Structure formats: C-alpha cells, structure tokens
C-alpha cells in the first residue's frame, strides 16, 4: 500500500491533516499568520513611507490652531481654536443633522407608510410614486438638488425683505439662511422649564397610577389626554402666568445680511431635508411591511372578542408591527447618520468636512485625521448595534 | 338591507342573482375607494389638492415652458422661463463618454452592447442555449476591460479620460461582479465553525459596514499609497474600484449570510451524511439554495451600490453626476442646477427602478416556488 | 374522544330564540355566496354545520358576529338587529364568542394575557378578577399550568384550548366554532372535542362548523347541511345520518364517511 511506504514524519503530517480537529487548528493558525504578516507588511510600508517624507504618526497637531472658519458651531469656535475643537464642532454638527434628520424622517416615514396602506386609491398611488421616485435616485443627488433649488430660488437678504419672503414680518427666508426670531429667556423662564419637566414627571406618575387603578378596579383612565395636558398644557399655563418671560431678538437687515435672530443655514436645511426625504421613503416601506406582517386573523380575533378598532390597534396590531419595524428602522437611522457625511458636497461642516477635510489638507496628517473620522463612525455603529441586539433580545417572540 | 319579496325556490335550486344595485357599478367603486369614510374623503381632497398644487406647475416647468434649442442660459430665458434643456442637449454626448477620445468611442459602445446579452443570459432562465453561453458571461469582463482600457492592438486610453455614464457603469458593474464572490467567501467565513476565521470575517464586515463609503473613498484617495511598498503607485480609478468592491462585499456578505442561515440544518447534515467534503457540500448543496433565496436581497444591494457610485465625485472622479456638474461651472450655463440634476436623476431612476422591478419579479417567483 | 355515550342531562333546549336569520343574502363582489339563508336558533341548541368546501359555512357564521356584512335580509342576535350601528356590533360581539380554525392567539402575549385582554379592556374587569376568571377557564380546558407560557410554545391542541378559554372569559352566551379541529393532528383533535363536549353539557348555545361526525352524533341536536350558499337540509343527527333527504346530502355523507 502506498501510504505504508511513506516516511514517518510525512505520515504524521498527513494524519494531522486528516484529523478533523487538527485540521481546524492548522487552518486557523494559517489564517492568523497570514493576517499577521499582511498587517505587518502594510504597517512597515507605512512606516517607511512616512519616514521618507519626514512625517510621523502623532496627534500633537490637534492642539494647534485650526486657522479656518466654520459657519455653524454649537460650541464656542473661532479660527484661532484648535483642530480638536474644530473636530468637536464637526462632530456636533454631524449629530445635529443626524438627530434632526432622524426625527423628520421618522415622522414623515410613518405617515407615508400608513397612507400607503389607506383604502384611498388616489392617496395610495401618490405615496407609491413618491416612494419609488425618491428611493431610486441616489441620496447625493437629492442633497445637491435640494441645495441647488434652495440657492437658486431663494432671494438675497435684501430681496427677501422687499419681495415678501417673510413670515409675519419676523422671519425671513433668504439664500443666507432662514432667519427666525431668537428667544432669549429671562430668569423667570426657568419656571416654565421646571413646569415642563414636572409635566413629564406628572404624566409618568399618572400613567402608573392609571395602571394601578385599572388593575384594581378595572376603570380605564384617559392617560393620553391627561399626559398631553400635563406635558404641554402645564408649561404653557406657567409661561402665561409668569408673564411671558422671553425677550425675542428679531432678525433685521443690516447691509447685505441679517443681524440678530437665529439662522438655519441653507446647507443645513438642504442636507437635513434631503436626508430625511430619502430615508423617509425607506422607513415608509418598513412601516408598511410591519403593519402588513400582522396577519388579518389577529385583527379578526380581537374584533370577535369585542375589542374596538382603536384598542385593537393599540393592543394587538402596533405591538406586533413594532417588532417587525424597529430593527430595520434602527439600521435606517444608522444609514442616515452615515449618509450625513455627504455634507461635504454642499459645504456643511460636519466631522468629515472639518477634521477629515480642511484640517487634513492643512496639516497633511492623512493617517491621523482619517483614524479619528473612522473611529467616530465606528462608535456610532457599535452603539446602535448594541441597542439593536438588546432590543431584539427583549422583544423576541418566544417560540418552540 | 331592504326586503325584496322572496320568491320561493326548492332547496338547492336558488339561482345566483346579481348583487343589489347599491353595491356594484362605478359609483359604488368610486364611493368605496374615495369617499367611504370621513378619513377617506379627507384624503381624496388632500390628494386632489396636492396634485393640483404640484402637477400643473411641474408640467409647465418641465415640458410646456421648456426650451430645447438655445446656445446659453441667457438665450433660454429669453424664449421661456421653464426648464432649459438646451444644456442637456449640448452636454448629452459628454455626459455619456466624458473625455474618451472621439474616434475610439465605438469600443465603449461595443462593450456596452455586449453587456445586454451577458445580463440577459445571467438573469433569464428562458435564454436560448443558456448553459453553453455561460462561458461568455465569464469572459465578458475581460473583453470589456480590454475594449475600454485598450492595449494588445488597441490604442490605450488613460483612465483619467473616463467619466460620465460610462464610468458609472464601469464602477457599478465591476463592483457588482466582484463583490458577489467575495461576499460569499465572507459569509461562509462568518458562519464557519472555526473561531479565528469567524472573528476575522466579522471584524472586516462590521468595520466596513460601520463607516460611510465616503470615508473609505477618502482613504483610497489620500492614504492607500502609504500602505504600499515605496515606489508602487496605483491608478486612482483602480483604488476606487477596490474600495467600492470591498464596501459592497461586506453588505453582500450579510445578505448571503441571511440566506445561508435560512437553509434548514437538515440540509447541512444530509450533505455531511453523503460524505461530501466542506467545499463540495457548499458548492453543490448549500450555496445554490442559499443564493436563490437571497437573490432579492442581492439585487437590492446592487441597487444600493449603483446609487453609491455617485460618491466618487467627492474625490474628483467625474461620473454622470460629476460631468453634469461641470456644466454648472460653465459661465454659459451657470445657474441651472434643476435641469442638470433632474436629468441625472432620471438616468438613475430608470436604471434603479428597472432593477427593483426585477427583484420584485424574482421575489414573487420565489414565493410561489416555496409554497409548493 | 371517548366512545361511551355522554351525559346529556345538562343539554336543554329552551324556547327562547337567540339567533334569528331571515332571508339573508350575501355577495362578494358579483359572487352570490349566501342565498336566502333562514335559520332560527334557540337557547341551548348545539348545531353542527357541514357541507362541501366553499359552500359558505364560514361566511354564514362570520355574519353572525359581523366579521362579514350581509347585504339583504335580517340577522337578530339576542333580539338586537345587526346593522352598521357600531354600538350594536359591540354589544353582540360581547355576547358571541368565536373560535377560529387557525387559533389566532396573540403571539406577543402570554396565555394568561391572551385570556385577560378583552375582559380588562372591554368589560373593565379588575386585573385580579380577570386573572382569576382566566385561570378558572384555563383549568376547565385543562391547561392551567401553561398560563405563563407564550402561544408559540404550546402544541396545536393546547393553543386551540387556550383560544376556547379566551372566548369563554368574555362570558359569551353563544359560541361559534369555525372548523376548530381541522388544523390539528389526529391525536390533538379529541382533547379539543372533549372541551367542546363539556361546554355543551353545561348548556352553552353552540354553532359549530365541523366535519367530525362522531361529535355531531353525540352532541348536536341539529345538523345543517349547506351547499352552494344555501341550507339544503337540516335535521336531528340520527335522522340526518341514517335518512338523508336530498341527493347532495347523500353524496356528501358517502364521501366523508367512506374513507
Ligand atoms: N373575502 C372573500 N372575497 C371573495 N370571495 C370569498 C371571500 N371569502 C370567501 N369567498 C368565497 O366564498 C365562498 C364561500 O367561502 P367560505 O369560506 O364560507 O366556505 P366554507 O364553506 O367555509 O369552505 P371551507 O370548508 O373550505 O372552509 C367560497 O367560494 C370562497 O371562494
Ligand atoms: Mg371555512
């Protein structure tokens, strides 16, 4: 037999290779070794290359002055601030776009998803057309188109005042941005803020109380309306009683631009609108799918038990639909956040445009800047997937 | 629920009667679909309002008040104040071929024409002599590459001359073709029993999926050269192709993993019981089934990738969107973003909508397949 | 189901009319599904409805709790006429329980929550009372120990018994069953039928679409045969099985009994 004639060490190797566990170990060792050598190779290349052009790998530049302006900042920033501050300003701008976009996209997406299912043929078709048109065109194109339309159709600040692009004479829409009156709270405004939080706390307490009352006596209390009254009504009441403690600073035309007030910049508007427009079309489809996934038998069974239409929605349909909707919804949120990096196309200063754009070009620190940007996005993703895993575990339907 | 005088029929002999007048006919149809309830009526009026607000204005702008023949934006505005399609007319050819030398464009056209039979063979079961022609689909990328890049008897064309629709298709088709096999390998790695393999694949997939494509493109354009041995330079287009492919593979891997996990465990066991080796059982038993059920997801990933090709304009490549944007910088056409972007949007809409219809058709076909 | 004859002492038919269907017609679009259906049900009756597939059995009993609308004729349940009046519909649905072929349990709620949902939100019963009552009915269908599981963890027969308990929790005076056993494996059928027999013995008014002829013989006081949307014949079970009047009934019986 052939194998008998082989020399002993070869036979051992062969036997090892035939052994299932040993082979698994060998393959894994080879994978890791290969990966290790590959990493070693590219790192040593990078070290050599950086040395030849006299660059190191250090983050010291972060503390040097950035030297460029950013037109929208949520924390104090001037062109004498450091690159690190610029990065934080960019990060906050990213978060601002992401949060605003997510809220808008969710609201619009849910409305569209429900409308798409409505019995009204006309509305169904309109929403269908909207969804198909919006999601089959690249998001970058939407950003550019919305930005282009805003810039080309909005008047200059001067014309905005003279041609009536104002709302009630206190807000002005122009190609420099949407200028709104800025509320400057007086000390007494604190009462309203406190009332708002008290309202929320009150709503939560009332909800618990209502649950207890229902458990004990069966009586169903109007939780929704009481919550609305507590969260909205109470602060408004306090606001009125304390004598409207807010001073408004109104935008006024001075020279070529407005002074005072508070501006929503056209770049921000374009980016937020386009991102939420695009994402809402995907969310609408998720919502529709989620509602359709709840079988008709479920509604029928609830009706047969005498449960009313709105309670059937609240107790049977929505809890089941949400299980289907939320996982893809979170991944849409993540997509929106990642797509906000296209800010650079319209000159909105997000994290990519600040540290990954201007700072990178000015300092020539490609490695360091890109590392920061990549890490920031990885953190977002990890946070969102951690949430998803937690949620999926919590809501998983228990089956055999 | 009015009472009609009941005629008495013997049991079992009652004829089928037409429904009462108040439940059929077009007026009932209209009532049901547009006015059945308060919400329904409100929605109908809202819809009519929306259509009335948007459609006439849009039609005026896009069609009735539009200008096709003019030499510049100013001329357009003199004729009518709708869309100035003249810019598209002038730039049409450029939007497709960009700076590809005019006398060599037949090569691009030929490569493009050959794409159709290739796609046809791949997508439709009924294609005549499909099995034999499959070899052609494998050869196609090489033929097309040779035609477009040149060499071996053809005039070489440098890649910085590439652009427009042609570049969009090059990036899209390359990314789509290469990401599938890489995605399959990654998916197999991710569900592999070997921990080291699994960790490597998970790390790769989650890293790529965790960052925006634009940052990867920045990496490709600004720092990829640092990681190569000194002196080695890569073409920018090639670097972009690599990144786009890697990016799509990670998403593809997740779609295929879904398909692999949907295959019942019994299939894996049956393959093992037949004595098939790992690769044999994957190739012959598992992958054919897994790929089949993931086709809709794969097509959706393709659509996503295809739309994402527009991002290359941010690092300076001129795809359709990029090349049309240059028209905006032209003093002659300055200030026509709507026309330019709408034209590009129509291009993308047509191709993506076609792909999504195809995916829907497949989904329906698969659905019936599974029921039986 | 045990072969021994069952105790029928609790099954009493009274004179009180609980369901009255007069000249009822229903169409699906152009399709005439139910043709001139006339049926009177007294309190305590156990009616079995059978007939070939597509004959309109489900449609008929679904009309009784207005899961389907009828277009002509009248349906009165407990003296209340079924119209589009939502109040009437709610009132009737509280009186009438229904058990479906595919159980339709709520998968996101435990067995106990499935049973207490309607009492809590419709009858406004205090939670403790609702749970006690639910446990009572769950014991009655012999699965009190499954109360805290989810429907997905139960066998088909157990799920169907939960569905019966869930309906009973609303204290209905009439129960509708639409092929409650046809989605079940043979060994689970008897556990569900036993539950239904017990219910009958307590005097519940029942309308039951089923092809379990053993059940019909033992429990029913009337068997109705439907075909083509019409009630072809109705009779006492003994008469119905031994001496069917119409040709179609004979054919149908020979088909379901000889296999
Ligand atoms: N929603 C509907 N729309 C249109 N036609 C329907 C609808 N539901 C039922 N039908 C038709 O009405 C007829 C009666 O259906 P039904 O479900 O009442 O029959 P069935 O006697 O219960 O049959 P099975 O024994 O199969 O359950 C069938 O021909 C069916 O195709
Ligand atoms: Mg039926």
From TrEMBL, chain A:
<feature type="transmembrane region" description="Helical">
    <location>
        <begin position="372"/>
        <end position="391"/>
    </location>
</feature>
<feature type="transmembrane region" description="Helical">
    <location>
        <begin position="21"/>
        <end position="43"/>
    </location>
</feature>
<protein>
    <submittedName>
        <fullName>ABC transporter permease subunit</fullName>
    </submittedName>
</protein>
<feature type="transmembrane region" description="Helical">
    <location>
        <begin position="188"/>
        <end position="208"/>
    </location>
</feature>
<dbReference type="InterPro" id="IPR035906">
    <property type="entry name" value="MetI-like_sf"/>
</dbReference>
<keyword id="KW-0812">Transmembrane</keyword>
<feature type="transmembrane region" description="Helical">
    <location>
        <begin position="127"/>
        <end position="150"/>
    </location>
</feature>
<feature type="transmembrane region" description="Helical">
    <location>
        <begin position="220"/>
        <end position="248"/>
    </location>
</feature>
<dbReference type="GO" id="GO:0022857">
    <property type="term" value="F:transmembrane transporter activity"/>
</dbReference>
<comment type="similarity">
    <text>Belongs to the binding-protein-dependent transport system permease family. HisMQ subfamily.</text>
</comment>
<keyword id="KW-1003">Cell membrane</keyword>
<dbReference type="InterPro" id="IPR010065">
    <property type="entry name" value="AA_ABC_transptr_permease_3TM"/>
</dbReference>
<dbReference type="InterPro" id="IPR043429">
    <property type="entry name" value="ArtM/GltK/GlnP/TcyL/YhdX-like"/>
</dbReference>
<dbReference type="GO" id="GO:0006865">
    <property type="term" value="P:amino acid transport"/>
</dbReference>
<keyword id="KW-1133">Transmembrane helix</keyword>
TrEMBL record, chain B:
<keyword id="KW-0813">Transport</keyword>
<feature type="transmembrane region" description="Helical">
    <location>
        <begin position="106"/>
        <end position="124"/>
    </location>
</feature>
<keyword id="KW-0812">Transmembrane</keyword>
<comment type="similarity">
    <text>Belongs to the binding-protein-dependent transport system permease family. HisMQ subfamily.</text>
</comment>
<dbReference type="GO" id="GO:0006865">
    <property type="term" value="P:amino acid transport"/>
</dbReference>
<dbReference type="InterPro" id="IPR010065">
    <property type="entry name" value="AA_ABC_transptr_permease_3TM"/>
</dbReference>
<dbReference type="GO" id="GO:0022857">
    <property type="term" value="F:transmembrane transporter activity"/>
</dbReference>
<keyword id="KW-0472">Membrane</keyword>
<keyword id="KW-1003">Cell membrane</keyword>
<feature type="transmembrane region" description="Helical">
    <location>
        <begin position="136"/>
        <end position="154"/>
    </location>
</feature>
<feature type="transmembrane region" description="Helical">
    <location>
        <begin position="200"/>
        <end position="224"/>
    </location>
</feature>
<dbReference type="InterPro" id="IPR043429">
    <property type="entry name" value="ArtM/GltK/GlnP/TcyL/YhdX-like"/>
</dbReference>
<dbReference type="GO" id="GO:0043190">
    <property type="term" value="C:ATP-binding cassette (ABC) transporter complex"/>
</dbReference>
<feature type="transmembrane region" description="Helical">
    <location>
        <begin position="340"/>
        <end position="362"/>
    </location>
</feature>
<feature type="transmembrane region" description="Helical">
    <location>
        <begin position="34"/>
        <end position="55"/>
    </location>
</feature>
UniProtKB/TrEMBL annotation, chain C:
<dbReference type="Pfam" id="PF00005">
    <property type="entry name" value="ABC_tran"/>
</dbReference>
<dbReference type="InterPro" id="IPR050086">
    <property type="entry name" value="MetN_ABC_transporter-like"/>
</dbReference>
<keyword id="KW-0547">Nucleotide-binding</keyword>
<protein>
    <submittedName>
        <fullName>Amino acid ABC transporter ATP-binding protein</fullName>
    </submittedName>
</protein>
<dbReference type="GO" id="GO:0016887">
    <property type="term" value="F:ATP hydrolysis activity"/>
</dbReference>
<dbReference type="InterPro" id="IPR027417">
    <property type="entry name" value="P-loop_NTPase"/>
</dbReference>
<dbReference type="InterPro" id="IPR003439">
    <property type="entry name" value="ABC_transporter-like_ATP-bd"/>
</dbReference>
<comment type="similarity">
    <text>Belongs to the ABC transporter superfamily.</text>
</comment>
<dbReference type="InterPro" id="IPR030679">
    <property type="entry name" value="ABC_ATPase_HisP-typ"/>
</dbReference>
<feature type="domain" description="ABC transporter">
    <location>
        <begin position="19"/>
        <end position="253"/>
    </location>
</feature>
<dbReference type="InterPro" id="IPR003593">
    <property type="entry name" value="AAA+_ATPase"/>
</dbReference>
<dbReference type="GO" id="GO:0015424">
    <property type="term" value="F:ABC-type amino acid transporter activity"/>
</dbReference>
<dbReference type="GO" id="GO:0005524">
    <property type="term" value="F:ATP binding"/>
</dbReference>
<keyword id="KW-0813">Transport</keyword>
<dbReference type="InterPro" id="IPR017871">
    <property type="entry name" value="ABC_transporter-like_CS"/>
</dbReference>
């Amino acid at each position: 037999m052939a194998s008998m004639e082989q020399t002993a060490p070869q036979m051992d190797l062969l036997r090892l290779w035939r052994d299932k566990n040993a082979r698994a170990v060998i393959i894994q060792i080879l994978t890791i070794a290969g990966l290790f050598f590959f990493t070693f190779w590219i790192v040593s290349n990078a070290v050599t290359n950086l040395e030849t052009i006299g660059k190191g790998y250090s983050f010291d530049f972060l503390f040097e002055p950035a030297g460029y302006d950013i037109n929208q900042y949520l924390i104090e920033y001037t062109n004498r601030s450091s690159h690190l501050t610029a990065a934080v300003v960019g990060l906050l701008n990213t978060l601002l776009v992401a949060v605003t976009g997510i809220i808008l996209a969710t609201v619009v997406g849910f409305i569209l998803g429900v409308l798409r299912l409505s019995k009204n043929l006309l509305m169904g078709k309109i929403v269908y057309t909207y969804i198909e048109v919006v999601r089959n065109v690249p998001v970058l194109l939407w950003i550019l188109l919305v930005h282009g339309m805003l810039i080309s159709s909005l008047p200059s600040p001067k014309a905005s005042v003279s041609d009536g692009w104002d709302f009630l004479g206190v807000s002005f829409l122009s190609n420099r941005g949407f200028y709104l009156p800025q509320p400057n709270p007086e000390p007494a405004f604190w009462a309203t803020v406190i009332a708002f939080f008290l309202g929320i706390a009150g709503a939560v307490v009332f909800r618990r109380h209502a649950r207890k009352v229902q458990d004990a006596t069966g009586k169903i209390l109007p939780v929704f309306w009481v919550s609305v009254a507590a969260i909205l009504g109470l602060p408004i009441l306090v606001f009125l009683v304390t004598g409207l403690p807010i001073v408004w600073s109104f935008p006024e035309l001075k020279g070529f631009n407005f002074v005072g007030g508070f501006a929503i910049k056209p770049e921000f508007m374009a980016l937020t609108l386009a991102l939420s427009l695009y994402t809402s079309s995907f969310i609408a489809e998720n919502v529709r799918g989620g509602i359709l996934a709840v079988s008709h038998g479920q509604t029928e069974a609830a009706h047969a038990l005498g449960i009313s239409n709105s309670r059937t929605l609240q107790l049977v349909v929505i809890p089941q639909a949400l299980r289907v909707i939320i996982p893809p919804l979170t991944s849409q949120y993540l997509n929106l956040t990642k797509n906000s990096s296209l800010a650079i196309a319209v000159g909105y200063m997000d994290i990519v445009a600040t540290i990954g754009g201007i700072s990178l070009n000015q300092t020539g620190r490609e490695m360091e800047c890109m590392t920061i940007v990549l890490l920031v996005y990885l953190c977002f993703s990890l946070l969102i997937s951690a949430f998803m895993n937690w949620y999926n575990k919590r809501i998983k339907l228990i089956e055999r | 629920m009015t009472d009609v005088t009941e005629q008495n029929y013997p049991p079992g002999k009652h004829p089928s009667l037409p429904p009462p007048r108040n439940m059929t006919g077009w007026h009932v149809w209209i009532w049901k679909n547009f006015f059945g309830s308060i919400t329904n009526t409100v929605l109908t009026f809202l819809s009519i309002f929306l259509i009335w607000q948007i459609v006439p204005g849009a039609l005026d702008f896009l069609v009735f008040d539009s200008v096709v023949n003019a030499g510049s934006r100013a001329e357009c505005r003199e004729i009518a104040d709708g869309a100035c399609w003249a810019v598209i007319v002038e730039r049409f050819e450029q939007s497709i071929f960009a700076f590809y030398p005019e006398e060599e464009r037949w090569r691009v056209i030929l490569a493009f024409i050959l794409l159709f039979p290739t796609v046809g063979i791949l997508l439709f079961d009924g294609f005549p002599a499909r099995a034999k022609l499959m070899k052609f689909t494998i050869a196609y990328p090489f033929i097309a590459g040779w035609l477009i890049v040149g060499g071996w008897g053809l005039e070489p064309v440098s890649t910085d001359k590439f652009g427009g629709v042609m570049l969009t298709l090059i990036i899209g088709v390359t990314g789509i073709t290469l990401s599938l096999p890489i995605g399959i390998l990654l998916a197999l790695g991710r569900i592999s029993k070997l921990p080291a393999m699994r960790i490597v694949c998970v790390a790769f997939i989650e890293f790529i999926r965790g960052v925006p494509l634009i940052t990867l493109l920045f990496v490709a354009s600004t720092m990829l050269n640092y990681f190569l041995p000194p002196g080695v330079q890569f073409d920018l287009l090639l670097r972009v192709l690599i990144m786009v492919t890697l990016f799509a593979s990670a998403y593809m891997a997740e779609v295929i993993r879904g398909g692999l996990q949907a295959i019942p465990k019994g299939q894996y066991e049956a393959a093992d019981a037949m004595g098939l080796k790992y690769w044999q059982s994957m190739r012959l038993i598992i992958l054919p089934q897994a790929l089949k059920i993931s086709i809709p997801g794969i097509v959706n990933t393709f659509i996503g990738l295809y739309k994402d090709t527009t991002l290359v304009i941010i690092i300076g490549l001129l795809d359709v969107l990029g090349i049309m944007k240059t028209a905006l910088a032209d003093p002659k056409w300055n200030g026509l973003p709507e026309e330019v972007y709408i034209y590009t949007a129509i291009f993308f809409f047509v191709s993506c909508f076609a792909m999504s219809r195809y995916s829907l058709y497949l989904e329906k076909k698969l659905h019936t397949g599974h029921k039986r | 189901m045990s072969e021994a004859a069952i105790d029928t002492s609790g099954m009493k038919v009274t004179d009180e009319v609980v369901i009255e269907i007069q000249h009822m017609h229903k169409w699906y679009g152009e399709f005439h599904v139910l043709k001139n259906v006339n049926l009177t049900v007294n309190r305590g009756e156990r009616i079995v409805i059978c007939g070939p597939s597509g004959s309109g059995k489900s449609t008929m009993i679904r009309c009784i709790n207005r899961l389907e609308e009828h277009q002509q004729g009248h349906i009165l349940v407990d003296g209340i006429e079924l119209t589009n009046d939502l109040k009437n519909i709610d009132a009737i649905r509280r009186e009438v329980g229904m058990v479906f072929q595919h159980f339709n349990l709520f998968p996101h709620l435990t067995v106990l929550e499935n049973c207490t949902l309607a009492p809590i939100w419709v009858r406004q019963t205090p939670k403790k009372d609702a749970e006690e009552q639910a446990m009572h009915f769950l014991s009655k269908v012999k699965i009190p120990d499954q109360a805290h599981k989810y429907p997905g963890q139960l066998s088909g027969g157990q799920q169907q018994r939960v569905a019966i308990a869930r309906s009973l929790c609303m204290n209905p005076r009439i129960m509708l069953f639409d092929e409650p056993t046809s989605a079940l494996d043979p060994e689970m059928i008897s556990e569900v039928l036993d539950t239904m027999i017990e219910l009958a013995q307590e005097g519940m008014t029942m309308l039951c679409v089923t092809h379990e002829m053993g059940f019909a013989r033992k429990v029913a006081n009337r068997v109705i045969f439907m075909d083509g949307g019409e009630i072809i014949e109705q009779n006492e079970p003994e008469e119905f099985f031994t001496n069917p009047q119409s040709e179609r009934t004979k054919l149908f019986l020979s088909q379901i009994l000889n296999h």
